[in-house]
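Chapter review: from sequence to fold.
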Amino acid sequence: MGSGKSTIGRLLSHELGQEFIDSDKAIEERAGADIPWIFDVEGETGFRNREQAVIDQLTQSSQIVLATGGGAVLRPENRHNLQSRGFVVYLQTSVDQQLERTARDRNRPLLQNDDPRGVLEKLMVERDPLYRECCDLIVKTDRRHPRSVVSEIVRHLNKQAALSHPV
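The token string follows.
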């Protein structure tokens, strides 16, 4: 949460000439409801079921940049589909930066409580190893301009392409 997935994903897709898709937006479009409503009515399990179906379908597409919700890595099926069907970038950010970026966002059900810092710290302990397990690249985003992050990712992708297609 608050790592810059949507902003960086949009910029990266433009740089690569690919379509940008946010899995959370795709879930909302298919459900005809926003994520807080889905959480309220179906609970986190219902939301995660929807998320898994969307990620399975979207990862079968090519030439897209996909931003997933931060909890997508909780399900082994999602980690497998992301890793085996694409190049996965972990946008790593500190809890302080997450709090700063999400402070006024009411569309984050997991943070709608009295201790958002505690929630984010717990999520980081739980999710960081899962992000690391399925990613191909880790990019730190704290205090960085999104274009700088995109440039780093593109440099890495170009380097990968050069290695896999030697002259």
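Two observations follow directly from the output. Residues 35-58 form the longest helix (24 residues). The mean pLDDT is 91.
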